[in-house]
Q: What sequence folds into this?
């Protein structure tokens, strides 16, 4: 592989390291700010070089100009960018595979076409923002399309070489990925059953694929292919329909899920016997026992005993994906299934369920700040929804939402700074133009707005704080530091507004914050920004949402500490941009607040010191561990 390819790979790995700085707990505020700023400057330098490299290595190249040696180098480059479970830069890998596929078609290279269709589907699947509950599936049709094209070579199977046959079978099995009617099994989420109507489509696909991968004909032709792994993956995916059964019983789905759960469980048993262990895979055990319950083979009491045992077996110091599942999701499942208890049994289990939920919160408090994955954030979201729908303890809400926000330290810093700025803007509005806020919190007059100044400003602050809460549900799908965003990644990023709205609007008391989450990237005149497919913000809260929009732009443009993917502007430069966009992108009433020289100077002074304080608290203090 040529030096330029390896340079890009090495620099992408370096950016990953720099984006998660290891900071000494003894640093002063000044030392911490300097360290984070230095990291951001290094990332920015690497980013410029990586953009140049990608233009040279991928985006400026034409398939007709590639040589066989170029193709070999590009294949090795893509492998270095997107290995299984080590996706260094999956987006760049996807564009490499696009180039290679165009080359394969041009040269009528069937084997390379099949290979590249598989990798195009896989890399786009890894980028796809997909959430069944929220109705999001950005690139599902394209993902399914790539795999369907690859699977279509099954009718030429006997003519293909062994490697191509393996890719055809993988494409066949992966056709389920991204298909809108059956997206539920692939979402990785615990809630929702809207996809249940698509189960007949999924079932038909399942059995069509199983007919091939269990066929003696194909297995005898290629005995070295991992047929058992293909079969395991199909059954494991089908167990995800447990989420439908928890809310909507269907005997056919219950039967099929049980079949798959038993298959996966038996496979795990064989592995554990081989290594002289008992079954330790928490999700496998959960699916097996829950499937047996839904099929009527065990009672709710027996199920809860099993689930409590799984939760108790978890290591509270394990923050891997397995640890997150055992310590976060298992208590949520326990609580949901405990709702099926009645009378004395309910009373008997209540203390044990409460201990499991307390353990869940202890685990959250111990989770290392800044090391959460989006998987953990989505799990936390799901269990927050479950607990608040079934639990009268509303105090849980602020804690869980706080941990979602703390999952990505740069976003948490930004959110807190935006909250600070939004409060300042709101306070100035209350003092100078309280009539703009009439209706907020049910106020009926400017005098009442002034009288309730603290409440109104506190609401504005919370709107600013929660505006980006959806970010942590999309960030694993994009590379936001080491190079410019790809179009697909920007499409994923834009969904953070809807994901934040989806979460916050699930709770009646957070409706105003949900509006800020949904609309803060939308232009004041509703003719630009995103997401424009939803109705514009209306009502009294619109005035506060306009403040969040301005505050968001101020911090994003002027953060000269940790902002690594754009050159920062001075406060004065940004204010001029706000004035230029007044009436189009920004609300004139908010921008005009900065015409007051005293307020302008106070905000400029306070912004720099407040930002540095928040960086220190989030990266070295306890702020990221405490409920918001």
A:
């Amino acid at each position: 592989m040529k030096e330029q390819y390896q340079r890009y790979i090495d620099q992408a790995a370096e950016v990953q390291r720099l984006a998660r700085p290891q900071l000494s707990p003894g640093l002063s505020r000044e030392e911490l700010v300097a360290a984070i700023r230095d990291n951001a400057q290094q990332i920015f330098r690497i980013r410029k070089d990586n953009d140049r490299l990608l233009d040279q290595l991928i985006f400026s190249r034409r398939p007709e100009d590639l040589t066989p040696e170029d193709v070999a180098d590009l294949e090795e480059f893509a492998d270095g960018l997107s290995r299984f479970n080590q996706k260094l830069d999956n987006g760049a890998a996807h564009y490499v595979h696009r180039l290679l596929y165009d080359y394969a078609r041009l040269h009528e290279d069937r084997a390379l076409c099949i290979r590249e269709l598989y990798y195009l589907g896989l890399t786009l699947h890894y980028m796809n923002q997909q959430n069944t509950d929220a109705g999001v599936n950005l690139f599902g049709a394209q993902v399914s399309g790539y795999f369907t094209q690859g699977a279509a070579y099954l009718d030429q199977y006997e003519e293909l070489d062994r490697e191509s046959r393996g890719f055809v079978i993988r494409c066949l099995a992966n056709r389920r990925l991204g298909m809108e009617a059956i997206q539920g099994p692939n979402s990785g989420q615990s809630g929702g059953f809207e996809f249940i109507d698509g189960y007949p489509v999924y079932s038909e696909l399942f059995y069509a694929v199983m007919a091939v991968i269990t066929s003696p004909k194909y297995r005898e032709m290629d005995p070295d292919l991992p047929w058992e792994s293909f079969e395991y993956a199909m059954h494991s995916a089908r167990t995800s329909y447990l989420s439908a059964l928890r809310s909507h019983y269907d005997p056919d789905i219950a039967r099929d899920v049980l079949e798959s759960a038993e298959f996966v469980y038996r496979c795990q048993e064989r592995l554990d016997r081989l290594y002289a262990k008992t079954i330790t895979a928490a999700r496998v055990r959960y699916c097996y026992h829950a499937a047996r319950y839904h099929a009527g083979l065990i009672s709710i009491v027996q199920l809860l005993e099993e689930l409590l045992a799984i939760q108790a077996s978890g290591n509270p110091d394990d923050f891997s994906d397995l640890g997150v599942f055992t310590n976060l999701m298992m208590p949520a499942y326990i609580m949901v299934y405990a709702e099926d208890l009645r009378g004395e049994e309910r009373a008997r289990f209540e203390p044990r369920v409460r201990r499991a939920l307390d353990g869940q919160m202890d685990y959250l408090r111990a989770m290392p700040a800044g090391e959460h994955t989006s998987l953990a954030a989505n799990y936390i979201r799901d269990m927050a929804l479950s607990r608040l729908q079934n639990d009268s303890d509303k105090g849980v809400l602020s804690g869980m939402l706080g941990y979602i926000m703390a999952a990505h330290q740069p976003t948490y810093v930004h959110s807190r700074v935006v909250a600070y700025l939004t409060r300042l803007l709101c306070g100035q509005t209350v003092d100078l133009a309280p009539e703009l806020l009439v209706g907020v919190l049910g106020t009926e007059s400017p005098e009442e707005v002034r009288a309730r100044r603290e409440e109104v400003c506190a609401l504005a602050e919370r709107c600013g704080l929660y505006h980006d809460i959806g970010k942590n549900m999309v960030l694993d799908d994009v590379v936001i530091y080491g190079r410019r965003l790809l179009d697909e990644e920007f499409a994923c990023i834009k969904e953070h507004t809807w994901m934040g709205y989806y979460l916050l609007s699930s709770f009646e008391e957070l409706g105003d914050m949900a509006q800020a989450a949904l609309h803060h990237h939308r232009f004041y005149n509703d003719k630009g920004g995103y997401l424009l497919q939803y109705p514009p913000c209306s009502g009294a809260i619109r005035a506060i949402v306009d403040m969040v929009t301005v505050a968001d732009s101020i911090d994003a443009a002027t953060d000269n500490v940790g902002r690594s993917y754009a050159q920062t502007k001075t406060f004065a430069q940004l204010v001029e941009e706000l004035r230029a966009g007044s009436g189009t992108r920004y609300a004139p009433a908010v921008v005009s607040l900065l015409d007051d020289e005293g307020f302008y100077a106070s905000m400029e002074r306070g912004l720099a010191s407040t930002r540095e304080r928040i960086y220190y608290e989030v990266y070295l203090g306890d702020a990221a561990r405490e409920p918001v």
